[in-house]
Amino acid sequence: AASNCATTANIDAVCAAGVTGIVAALGELAAAASLAAPTCAATPPSLPTTKISELGDQTLSQSRRLVIGLGPVGNGIQCGVDVSVVAENIANMGLAINQAVNSGNCDSDNWDGNKGLVRSLCTVDIGGAIAYFSQVVTFIQLAILNCKDYLDIKALCGASIAGIATSAAAIAPYGAAIHAACSLNDEAKEATGDTRRLEASMDGTEDMDFYDKLNHATASLRETMAAMGAEPAKDSDFSDADLSELVGLAEPALATNVRGGATSLFGATECQ
Questions:
Q1: What is the rounded distance in angstroms from the CA atom of residue 139 to the CA atom of residue 146?
Q2: More confidently predicted of 107 and 165
Q3: C-alpha span between 32 and 5 (Å, rounded)
Q4: What does R_g of the chain's alpha carbons equal in angstroms?
Q5: Are 212 and 49 in contact (CB under 8 A)?
Q6: Considering Cα of 142, then 148, then 152, then 155, what sign does the dihedral take?
Q7: Is-contact 187 115, C-beta < 8 A?
Q8: Any bridge partners for residue 264, and if so which?
């Protein structure tokens, strides 16, 4: 965010993101492998119930906030988190594909004479798209569990395998970011000149407000989808009215009972 949300590229922030990303990917690899060991076994462990909201000691719900053990409210919140992570990674995957297609970083004609800097940026885009896709699969599997309030061992096994694939795929773009921003730190700073981003030139969005930038990115995504043979949506520009409509659609769902809870989500004592 320190680099993406700024008008100029923050090379040191990209370097730090690459290092912490590698650590996070290894952490996800360890967690996913630990989950795969029991759930993907020929004889998975058995539990007294298949309802996630009933697992754990419910008498401790006033003093702890764990996913398992807080009952229907905690399980419903985790369902919302899973769905939001799926949506976020789908968006990131689209942006990564769009960046790979339109930035020029994946044009082999631009790879010579820069010590692999541009090629590393291409790896960040393509590897990131693959990792985002794997993460979508991971959290769809987890959403199946939490949104149905059903402990499906096969879904847990699938989520763990997808998590292993995600962490392995994420090592490539994060490693490329380390090469581009850490190993070639001086070259990357010289290439950006502290006045523009890592791409060859600014795309004309530096003077736009946030809505215009969103419309610009959406138009670019549609062009990319059309070039790839997909059928992009023909919606009009995003506006304040669209945002209000989205909020209006979300409010009724958030105000309904969560998995049979006694009160609405925002009316529950645990959530106030």
A1: 10
A2: 165
A3: 31
A4: 22
A5: no
A6: negative
A7: yes
A8: 257
Planar angle of CA 220, 203, 232, nearest 5 degrees:
0
What does the H/E/C string look like for the chain?
Answer: CCCCCCCCCCHHHHHHHHHHHHHHHHHHHHHHHHHHHHHCCCCCCCCCCCCHHHCCCHHHCCCCCCCCCCHHHHHHHHHHHHHHHHHHHHHHHHHHHHHHHHCCCCCHHHCCCCCCHHHHHHHHHHHHHHHHHHHHHHHHHHHHHHHHCCCCHHHHHHHHHHHHHHHHHHHHHHHHHHHHHHHCHHHHHHHHCCCCCCCCCCCCCCCCCHHHHHHHHHHHHHHHHHHCCCCCCCCCCCCHHHHHHHHHHHHHHHHCECCCCCCECCCCCCCC
Q: Cβ distance 151 to 47 under 8 Å?
A: yes
CA-based nearest residue to 7, from 215, 211, 198: 198
Per-chain mean pLDDT for the chain: 76
Give residue-wise pLDDT tens across range 16-62: 999 999 999 999 999 999 989 988 988 887 777 778 777 765 555 55
Residue 110 CA to residue 94 CA, distance in Å, equals 23
Locate tokens 């309030």: which residue?
149
- Residue written as tokens 């070259």? 187
Question: What is the rounded distance in angstroms from the CA atom of residue 170 to the CA atom of residue 183?
Answer: 19
Distances (CA, A) of 87 to 82, 133, 154, 194, 196: 9, 11, 23, 33, 29
Instruction: List all residues 6 or more positions away from 251 whose beta carbon is below 8 Å from its beta carbon.
Output: none
Confidence of residue 252 (pLDDT cuts 50, 70, 90): low
Least confident of 86-95, 138-147, 260-269: 260-269
Cα separation, 72 vs 56, in Å, equals: 12
